[in-house]
Structures are given as C-alpha cells and as structure tokens.
Design brief:
The strands form two sheets. Strands 3-4-5-2-1-6 form a six-stranded mixed β-sheet. A six-stranded mixed β-sheet has the order 8-9-7-10-11-12, sandwiched between helices. The protein contains 15 helices and twelve strands. The longest helix has 28 residues. About 45% of the residues lie in helices and about 15% in strands. The chain is an alpha/beta fold. Helix 7 runs antiparallel to helix 8. Among the domains are: about 120 residues, Gyrase A, domain 2 (2-Layer Sandwich); about 140 residues, Rossmann fold.
C-alpha cells in the first residue's frame, strides 16, 4: 500500500463524531486529501461513492482485523466539507474506536480540533457564516422553538435573503457606475440630474426590507430563555412559586424573613418555550443584614433587566421600567388578602391557579420570541443588517452619485460580513470553538 505524502496526510483529519461511547454505533469521520488512501489502507478497496458498503477493516501495520463496519466514501467537492471525505460506522465500543484511531494516525492523519470539519466546510464554500451560526445554535438547541429557529438559519434562510440584498446592491451600484462613466465623458454634470431614475425609491424599498428583518425578535432571548423574575417582600411566596414553576425544589422555603439572599436561576421549558426563571431576595428597606442587602440590590438589578416581573408585593409597588404582572399568591391562606386587580390568583403550595399562570406565561413568551421556524438574528447579524440599512438609507438620500456609490459600497461590505465574505478570523476562532470535536 502506498501511503500519501506527509503534507497530504497531515492535512487530513479524523474524529469520532457520534458522541460518547459505548453506544450501538461509533461514527468515525475522515476529511482531507488523503482520505481515500487512508480508506484503502484500512479496507483494501474503497466502496462506490455515496453508497454504504460492509467492509472488513484491518490494521495496515500487521493486517489484524479491527472491525467489520459500514463504510461510506464521499469524493470532494460534493461532500460535507468540500474535500474528500469518508465515514466508518463502527461498533460503538471504546476499544474499537481507539484501535481505528491508532490505525489512522499510523497512516499519517491527525486528530481533528473542535469544529474543524465545519470550519473546512466554511472555508470551501459549503456553508456560509450565517449557516454555520445556525448549525452551532442547532447543536445547542434544547427546546422546540430553539430547534426550529436554528434549523431555518442552518438551512440558509438568512443566507438566501442576504444574496437577494447583495444582488439589489450590485444592481444599484451598476446604475451609479454607469452614470459616473457618462459623466467622465462630459455628457452629464455631477448633480442630482445624473442619479438614475428611481434610484432613491429603490434604496427606500431595500431599506424597508432590511428594517423588517431588524424588527423581528432577536436570537438571544430565544437562547437564554424568556426572563421571568419573581419579586416582592419577604415571605410573599416567591420561592414556593419559583419551585412550582421550575418543577423542582430549587429554592429553600422558610417562614424566616431573608431566607433567599442571592439570585437563583432555573432554565426550564414549558410547552416547548424556553424560560429563565429568577427567584430573588425579598425586598425590604429595614432590617436587612449586610449579606441580605447585597441580595436585595441584585434583586432590583434583575428586575430591571427582566422580560417580565411577577410581583407578589403590595399593589402598584412593583419595579418600574419592566413589564409587571400583579400576582396574588398564597390564596390558600386566610390571613392573606386577595389583590383586587391581580392578573393571577394562585397558591403554589396547593397548585391552585398554577396551570393558568403557566399558560399565560407561554402565550406571552411566544409573542416576544421568534415564531416557530422564524429566523432570528443574533447580535452580530443584527449589527451587520443595521450597518447595511444605514448605508442604503444614506445612499438613497444623496444627490452626489460619488457619495451614493460610496454608501452602496459600505452596504455591500456589511452584507459580505453578514455571510462571512470578509476577514473575521478572531470571531471565527470563537465561533468554531463552540463546536464539539468531530463536527
């Protein structure tokens, strides 16, 4: 068997991509210029392209059998990474995977780094940056809403929109360049008369399309969960309600004031909607010790950044600057008065009213979060679209075609940054570091 050159082999990577072993199967991925030769070294004859074939895998060092596995061969560039690729569907024991890894290393291949397969797909044009970000979110998705939004992003919904925006920008730029060419010939002066007919209107239409995307709910709340803060004075029933909504005894419940002294957070999914529930220290102005006072300050800060505050205190005394629901808790207690205008009357101890509160929370969060399957821009993507919108708006308001052309150039640069056509090496290092080894 003729082994590949050192350079080709060292540029060929392998990794177990199917998760923790032992398992029913362990999938070993190989990608790079020496993938085909490594495959032949292990199984003798490579299978037909894109056709699963049962092969006996042997150690090229001594011919000892390693495993009997399904083998797939994907010649580049029509592969996941754009390179020659192979997959070995092994029996899912650790010893089997270790033996195959050692044989591949003997062939000169090297172990892949986290996210390296996906990074090669990006570098070879199989995925753009928006699709990569969607794939990262898809791998991290824990709820149905997160999965469907990430699936839309990974499937290229934003990328297709960006291609449309780029085509519009190129068409507008071509019109401006043509007008400038005529000006160079001395036929037209550099004034408002030289701008192409309908140029401002076309810029306004494109700006409107970009603003529509910017008006949609963002990705961060979807990933972090709809933030619901439980706030109120000591012994108002916050921790009991927190435990009921979280479905676990996460907070200590005690009649002693000041039991909760720090912020407690629980990530939960209710009917497929992600929530971040935050229990806080009881708010009081007097009688708090130094540690409890710190907890109270943190409680006020959490309330300020909440998507919704469930206020269990006196009517009208809830935090300002956030959406607040008046909650009449502990309705099972005769010594607790029912708030006249409470949005929900409940008892977390008996369960009365809890289902109604959950349903209301889900309906409210669904309106604030992206709709199922809707693409949600993350902070980086929204910044690129905002830069594009600002540049297009500026170009459309110009009378000087040279300044209008510069505005369109800036818009194209923002569009290229959106899908990764510009140099973003530091950001890429952080992004691909989110991926597991083997992806």
């Amino acid at each position: 068997m003729t082994f590949p050159s050192d350079s080709a082999a060292s540029e060929t990577i392998f990794a177990l991509s199917s998760g923790q072993l032992p398992a029913a199967l362990g999938v070993m991925r190989i990608s790079g210029p020496a993938a085909g030769m490594a495959l032949q070294a292990l199984c003798g004859v490579a299978p037909a392209a894109r056709r699963a074939s049962l092969r006996r895998l042997c150690d090229p060092r001594d011919g000892a059998e390693l495993d009997r596995a399904l083998v797939l061969w994907f010649p580049g560039p029509a592969s996941a990474t754009g390179e020659d690729c192979a997959e070995l569907h092994l029996h899912g024991g650790r010893a089997v995977a270790n033996a195959v890894s050692a044989a591949l290393a003997h062939c000169g291949l090297r172990a892949a780094r986290p996210g390296e397969f996906t990074r090669r797909a990006f570098a070879n044009g199989r995925l753009d940056l928006a699709e990569v970000e969607g794939l990262a979110d898809l791998l991290a998705a824990e709820t149905e809403l997160q999965r469907r939004s990430a699936q839309a992003m990974a499937g290229g919904a934003l990328s297709r929109a960006a291609e449309g925006w780029r085509a519009s920008l190129l068409a507008l730029s071509a019109q401006i360049e043509a007008a400038l060419d005529f000006a160079d010939e001395g036929d037209v002066g550099l004034d408002g008369e030289m701008l192409p007919p309908g140029f401002a209107e076309a810029c306004a239409d494109l700006h409107g399309a970009l603003r529509t995307w910017l008006a949609q709910p963002r990705a961060e709340p979807l990933g972090e969960g709809f933030r619901v803060v439980l706030a109120g004075p000591p012994n108002a029933g916050k921790s009991t309600l927190f435990n009921a909504l979280a479905g676990a005894e996460a907070a200590i419940v005690s009649p002693e004031p000041g039991t909760t002294r720090d912020v407690l957070t629980a990530a939960v999914a209710i009917d497929g909607v992600p929530f971040s529930l935050i229990d806080t220290a009881g708010l009081r102005d007097e009688g708090a010790g130094a540690i409890e006072a710190i907890g109270i300050a943190r409680a006020r800060a959490e309330a300020e950044r909440a998507d919704l505050v469930l206020w269990l205190g006196p009517v009208g005394e809830g935090p300002q600057g956030a959406a607040v629901w008046e909650i009449s808790a502990q309705c099972d207690r005769e010594d607790v008065a029912i708030k006249p205008d409470a949005r929900h009357v409940l008892s977390a101890r008996t369960g009365e009213g809890i289902d109604g509160l959950r349903s209301d929370l889900v309906a409210t969060a669904r309106n604030a979060l992206p709709a199922p399957g809707q693409v949600a821009l993350n902070r980086r993507q929204a910044g690129c679209v905002q830069d594009m919108a600002d540049a297009v708006q500026a170009a459309g308001s110009e009378r000087d075609p040279i300044l209008a052309a510069e505005g369109l150039r800036l818009a194209r640069r923002a569009c290229d940054a959106l899908v990764g056509r510009t140099d973003t090496e530091a950001m890429l290092d952080a992004l691909f570091g989110r991926f597991c080894i083997g992806k």
